[in-house]
């Protein structure tokens, strides 16, 4: 597994690197001291895993994750219990409290290896579109979530923001629907209209609608109008 350590403290990076030397399955390909540096290194190396300090100057670990299109496995590293608790609130893979204990690290590494074997995400393919198996990080104010895209039933444009529909929540992210549409796999997601992108695996019912359009009902009850312009493409995609 390729990994990047992201921590503004040199001694913390050195300590973790030293501890990981006994775990040959994990290869440290780079180290970053801040979020901006980490963004470049993640884009360059496409790691399977990042060890991420939560509290860093200027941008936190959560801020960094919010800027990534595709999120690798994440293990938070922190010296504070309060951040560890928040890490679990955002459904992180796991966390390590500083100073890191060797036994605790060994357990986390074993979990990582088990998860990596199950994963269908292939590293080293930066041009690959975001599909159902990819994980993204959603940050809305102080609330954060890791979400697999197969859980997202719909994206809805709301001004300069996008509303993300998954589970029972609808957090807002500061992105444009056009930019998101370019990154999503068209086999998995469909641009229904100027305001909506839907997850095709969530489609439950399709009905004719006004002016040659369609009304699509998703599992769970959400309804989305497919514009007349997009209706023929949708029928072709769904083999209607």
Automatic annotation (TrEMBL):
<feature type="domain" description="HTH LytTR-type">
    <location>
        <begin position="138"/>
        <end position="240"/>
    </location>
</feature>
<protein>
    <submittedName>
        <fullName>Response regulator</fullName>
    </submittedName>
</protein>
<dbReference type="Pfam" id="PF04397">
    <property type="entry name" value="LytTR"/>
</dbReference>
<dbReference type="Pfam" id="PF00072">
    <property type="entry name" value="Response_reg"/>
</dbReference>
<keyword id="KW-0597">Phosphoprotein</keyword>
<dbReference type="InterPro" id="IPR007492">
    <property type="entry name" value="LytTR_DNA-bd_dom"/>
</dbReference>
<dbReference type="InterPro" id="IPR001789">
    <property type="entry name" value="Sig_transdc_resp-reg_receiver"/>
</dbReference>
<feature type="domain" description="Response regulatory">
    <location>
        <begin position="2"/>
        <end position="113"/>
    </location>
</feature>
<dbReference type="InterPro" id="IPR011006">
    <property type="entry name" value="CheY-like_superfamily"/>
</dbReference>
<dbReference type="InterPro" id="IPR046947">
    <property type="entry name" value="LytR-like"/>
</dbReference>
<feature type="modified residue" description="4-aspartylphosphate">
    <location>
        <position position="53"/>
    </location>
</feature>
